[in-house]
Structure prediction request, 224 residues.
Amino acid sequence: MVVNAHPDDAEFGCGGTIARWAGGGREVVYVVCTNGDRGSSDPEMTSERLAAIRVKEQRAAAAALGVKEVIFLGYPDGGLEDTGAFREQLVRLIRKHRPEIVLTSNPHRRPFQHRDHRIVGTVTLDAVFPYARDRLYYPEHEAAGLATHKVREVYLWGTDEPDIVIDITGVMDKKLAALRCHVTQVGHRPEEIFRKFVCERAAAVGGLRGFTYGEGFLRIEFPP
Ligand SMILES: [Zn+2]
Prediction:
């Protein structure tokens, strides 16, 4: 399960990893928390129109990586808060989809980051542990037939000092193709410049472990 703040965060943060895992037969579900409706400098664009376009872009990008399902929570861009209601939504989805691994933004990225990235990382970690694991949190879930669930690992993207690097050399083209689906976000950049930007970053991370291209994460392992 990938929990991201905005359409396109997952492709930037872990698109290659998702392509590899989905290609290897793993089921991947996206939870896209905001609709990204502020992400435009086009004077003709409206939030309503942008939100509708970004849903389509996100579905296309997910399909390009082999993601099975995309769930949109529909919060406004910049509108995430660390609330009990948001946490309950994530706990419910974790208990329903029962992921082995959850991927999300590193909430402690230095020196700073988008507020939504910080909040989605924090609330997702809280939802995984202890809320989804322990049955007396949200007892209404049990009454509705949703059992507790222990996530095995959380991978946090957005770190300069990863403790795990996934080799994405063989799927770099898929990551690039998925990113290009986000036309409202990357469409203004010429293909060659964009490709160079993404490949240079992936090469720097991959180089930490001797791979041509890589994606790096902080990994949290929970005891069984
Ligand atoms: Zn974002």
Residues 5-6, 9, 114, 117 surround zinc ion (CB under 6 Å). The domain at 2-221 is CATH 3.40.50.10320 (Rossmann fold). The mean pLDDT is 96. The radius of gyration is 17 Å.
